Amino acid sequence: MMRRVALGAGLVAAGALGVGWVIARRLTAPGTRRYDLTVREVERDGDGSLIVLDRTRQTAAEGAYNLWFENGGWAQLSEDVLDRGPTLIARRVTSTASGLTLRAGDHVSWSGIYYATPHDASLHAHDITIDTPAGPAPAWRIDGDSGRSTWAIHLHGLGSVRAGTLRAVLAATERGYTSLVISYRADGEGPGVGNGRSTLGFTEADDAAAAIEYAMRHGARQVVLFGWSMGAAIALQLAHHPSYRRSIAGLVLDSPVLDWTEVIKANCTRSGLPSAAGSLAIPWLTLRPLARMVGLPESIPIRSFDWTVRAEELTAPTLILHGTHDDSVPIRLSQALRDARPGLVSLETFEAGHTLSWNSDPDRWQSAVIAWLPGVPRGGGLSGPRRRDRDGVSHRAMVSENDQELTQKDDTARWLLTSLPSSSCSGN
Question: Using CB atoms within 10 A of its CB, is residue 35 exposed (0-12), middle (13-18) or buried (19+)?
Fold first, then answer.
């Protein structure tokens, strides 16, 4: 009897271990866009074209959104939602990619990435390359006022692309900032590394640090980091790093990942799993031998990403913009950080999903950012960032030995879901 019990317990443990491996693999895998909508009909009238789609929570949401077509191209949609019966809605097309022909039956992806290129946002950009520890990373530089010594660096989220951050560049440009819209390792545009798995912002922060150094070499005296979802996690790591904290004057964070543990729990719940299921993946991410088996280049110090616990360590003025309907990154995390640091952190809420606050109300989003930016202190970073060591360690977002030790003992959450807080689940 005891042997059967032991065997049963062993099988359960082995099954749990396997589930944890699968979750960790799904979590860190390169993201792909899902074309899960079908154009039901294309209507044409004297004012142009309308696209008829199935009625869903996303397609019926008011705001400015984009459709990306599986065969290439995009179509920007107006904010108005037109009723076409109980199961269908229509959205007017305001602009399309050059040469795109709209057809019924096309497979499309609903997205908050409203602009494909700076040109689509009426921005003049220079194509540049930033040398990062992982290799050359393409970026756009949108020059601001010549007298401005504050630059903006824009960091996209996991599974997304740099074009997603162009929504924020408009506000930075309005304030006269020069903007760097960067790519980073394994995002599909930046340098390829290994098998392309994400380290959830840990090693990606190295590439963002290289962008700060580029800005400082080219005339910036301080920078404001604009981070979306995981991009916010990167920004927070850099803002705490001793080599960069004096150069970072402020943070603008949209749908920020402030605690990976809670984010993973939320995504488990959203995918129909118990939130606790994610805890099975933690050893596969935080313990080096297991992380290697997942395919990661190194273990991930999950504890260092928990800014609800590390709130007192935050020193940069921070504006958070977050949707109340975000089921990927819970807004309560942003509320907790705001409540912990009310004099440093401001929070603007929108009736929107993950990274879709701008889309739900572009004018209010931009106005909130433009109104907040003048409060960013001037004169930070006069000495510039410290140069990187040759081994590339000094510009890694700082994680103390104690943080790493705690992380390796942590039994918190991950998730089993093909989509993450990224473009595939939210439109970032």
Answer: middle
- What is the reported pLDDT for 266? 86
H helix intervals, 101-229: 166-174, 204-217
- Report the distance separating Cα 77 and Cα 94, nearest Å: 6
Which of these, 114, 163, 157, lies nearest to 142 by C-alpha position? 163
Terminal CA-CA length for the chain? 54
What's the confidence (pLDDT) of residue 428?
56
Candidates 40, 49, 35; CA nearest to 101 is 49
Within the chain, which residues score under 50 in pLDDT? 1-14, 380-384, 386-395, 397-427
User: Sign of torsion, CA 176 178 180 181?
Assistant: positive
> Is the separation of the CB atoms in 66 and 96 below 8 Å?
no
- Helix count (H) and strand count (E) of the chain? 12, 16
As a whole number of Å, the CA-based R_g of the chain is 22
DSSP 8-class letter at 301 = -
Judging by DSSP bridges, how do beta strands 318-323 and 248-254 pair with one another? parallel
pLDDT score, position 17: 62
0.70 exceeded by pTM: yes
| 167 close to 226: Cβ distance less than 8 angstroms | no
